[in-house]
Amino acid sequence: MTARVVPTEVDGSGDLGSMTGDPGWLVVAGQECRDLWRSGRGLALLFCLSVLLSAVTYLASTNSALNFLERREAVNLVLQFVVGVGVLLTLVVTADGISGERERETLESLLVTPVSRRAILAGKLIAGLTLWFAAYVVSIPYLWLLAREVGIFSRAMTLGLLVGTLVALGLGCVGLLISTVSNSNKISLAISLFLLVILFAPTQLPSGLPAGWFFDVIERLNPVSSGLAYITGQLVQAHPWSEDLSFLVSPVLTVVLAGGALVIAGPRLVRLTVGSN
Amino acid sequence: MKRAVLLASLVLALFAYLAAPAWAAPLAVQITPDPTRVATVLGGRFTITTEVANTGSAPTGNVLAHLNVASMQDEVYVDPEDWSSSRSVNLTLQPGESRTLSWDIQAVNAGRFAAYVVVLPEGSEVSGAEGLVVSPLVKIDVETRSAMSESGVVPVVLAIPLLLGLSAAALRLRRRR
Q1: What is the dihedral of CA A35, A41, A45, A48, to 10 degrees?
Q2: What CATH number is given for B25-146 in this structure?
Q3: Which residues touch A150 (CB under 8 Å, ≥6 apart)?
Q4: From the CA of B90, how many Å to the nearest CA of chain A?
Q5: Is residue A2 part of a domain?
Q6: What is the pTM of this model?
Q7: Is A39 near chain B, with CB under 8 Å?
Q8: Domain count of chain A?
Q9: Complex ipTM, two decimals?
Q10: For residue A167, is it within any domain?
Q11: Residues of chain A whose pLDDT is less than 70?
Q12: pLDDT tens digits, residue range A235-254?
């Protein structure tokens, strides 16, 4: 049995935001960001990312056997790590969003605050995205080290920001959706991570395998692999920006579908459930 | 009988001579590259033009002009596809006609290299005995850009994790207090 709490779309005078002078979503986002960053959790995750990027950058930049094109591939590799790990961090944080509140038994008190449920979801999504943006900022020195020599630094940074934000936003929405329907944080995180593994699997197939139409369809349907394929085309093959735009259809669709589902169904899904609130 | 065989042989030889394609003879083509020397940096893009002229009295037939890049240093491996994605042009030249071909090149290795264009007959009738015409080489000197040394990389790859690790540890300590 589910303890039904009627979603109250609070606006105007009753909104917590109107009491503090800020919109409700901004208040929730601020609180979530403080929890994430002041606790040291965010920095600890960024530390792990920086160790990974340092190792890859050191190996790639001190290998004198790499030629010009392989340097571009090294930039591409680091950027793919940044996007991949940044998306993973966003997904993990957003997957904790609602199910974590249920598990910590804080959802009830959150729901009685005068903030709309859409504002709660938006605030949690923004907090998750801050991890992606932080990962992007951390990657700047590494990309500068590798890309300045081959003159693709600004291109790599622009691509990383656009494609990474798109993929992180889409998967952040997916993570929140999973979180809203999960009673347990473990279930929510497990489903999210399993989803991420499924999404990354096609990117790990050996390049020597025959790539037929089936592989092409899988790659294009997958927002992660298609986003990374767009980056590779731009950085390594130096394609014009408009050449591989079809690769961005899947990340855009993920944002539209998952974001639309959150906006439409979110207020009904963020509710108290029996056993874990 | 002998006269008949001799006559038949002569007729066959005449047919064979007439039926042979025009380009079976050595190609009368001259290739002039411009410039003959290029100095650039790693990743630099430049264009070489070659003027291909038919200096003979017969049409060239279908010929293929093909760009190649070779290293003049033993230890440097060259993949010409990396240097230029479009390296072949088909053409036919009438006697006295010439055509200027442009080759867009990107220097993807550092070192000393030679680029040259070869013109060869093309088509299913090519027997393999025909001659090739090779252009004078274009010498390409490619300098490395700011070479990345360990001393330039190590501070960054150490400083960032250190900074983040210390910040995370400081925050945790502060929360515990």
Answers
A1: 160
A2: 2.60.40.10
A3: A68, A71, A72, A75, B42, B43, B145
A4: 25
A5: no
A6: 0.68
A7: yes
A8: 1
A9: 0.78
A10: yes
A11: 1-22, 64-69, 202-212, 274-277
A12: 887 888 888 899 999 999 99
